[in-house]
Amino acid sequence: MFQRGQQRFLRKQLNTPPRNQPVLKSQREIQIMREAGRVVARVHEAMREAVQPGVSTWDLDQIALEVMQKYNAVSAFLGYRGYPAHICTSVNEELVHGIPNKDKVLRGGDIISIDIGVRYRGFIGDSAWSYAVGEIDEKAAHLLRVTEASLYAGIEQMVVGNRIVDASRAVQQVVENAGLHVVREYTGHGVGRQMHEPPQVLNYVGNDPDGNLVLEPGLVVAIEPMVQVGTWQTRTLRDEWTVISKDHSLTAHFEHTVAVTHNGPEVLTLP
Ligand code: MF3
Ligand code: CO
């Protein structure tokens, strides 16, 4: 096989456009992705148990690693563009890509978004969830409820004949009707043998050609609304990974890997 650079070179020679068509998955491939997704769900079950005041995000990373190993899966994040951990752990104003750290200890009243991706038999499962640490206040609870509801509103639209933008619009409506803000700089994505495949799945109606893509059976995407209390804008910290809300307001992130089937949307990242 060619290496990436050589492929690009050949494409240039032949004057063919870069591939941006989604790769549809066969029944057999979707069965493997179901298993990959189940591993992700098992890791989330362990996270739900482990998230307690006094636990560090590094502890969570270790627990996640153990569960992945138990099911013969590996982290899809470790080493991805140099990412240094097995999962992403983002606390309060941290939105995504928070790096697990021994010094980051959870306190009652925090919320933590945990993003988990694994590779299993060549395929990726990708799912994020935001958890309450002990008792949280009503503002935080509202943020979690709305963001989860927006994810499911998006998933409901993943039916044959709809377009990607129908999911984007559904997410945005739930978030904005609740007076919250949906992040624009980060999006959902196709998923399969690669963590990030076409199409892009915006969480708002924007001008993105991928929004026009008509859904077909075998399309698999990760839908992942990222929602903030005070603004849709974000900023990246000096570690060059951690993304926070620009105004330091609370944030949440819910994500599932979803297959479009003849029988409607199938969430693959379930136990
Ligand atoms: N799960 C994230 C996504 O859906 C990717 C995590 S970034 C990584 O885009 F670098 F940690 F892998
Ligand atoms: Co994702």
Q: Strands of the largest sheet, in order across it?
A: 8-7-9-14-15
Please summarize the sheet with the most strands.
Answer: 5 strands, antiparallel
Number of domains: 1
**What proportion strand?**
15-25%
Radius of gyration: 18 Å
Shape call: globular
Question: How many separate helices?
Answer: 5
Helix/strand order, N-terminal first: HHHEEEEEHHEEEEEEEEEE
From the N-terminal CA to the C-terminal CA, the straight-line distance is 36 Å
Oligomer: single chain
User: How many E strands?
Assistant: 15
CATH topology: Creatine Amidinohydrolase
Based on secondary structure, the structural category is: alpha+beta
Tell me which CATH architecture applies here.
Alpha-Beta Complex
Could you name the ranges where pLDDT drops below 50 across 5 or more consecutive residues? 1-13
What is the helical fraction, as a range of percent?
25-40%
List cofactors, ions and other ligands: 2-amino-4-trifluoromethylsulfanyl-butyric acid, cobalt (II) ion
Q: Which keywords apply here?
A:
30% helix; binds cobalt (II) ion; 15 strands; 271 residues; five-stranded antiparallel β-sheet; binds 2-amino-4-trifluoromethylsulfanyl-butyric acid; Creatine Amidinohydrolase; alpha+beta; single chain; four-stranded antiparallel β-sheet
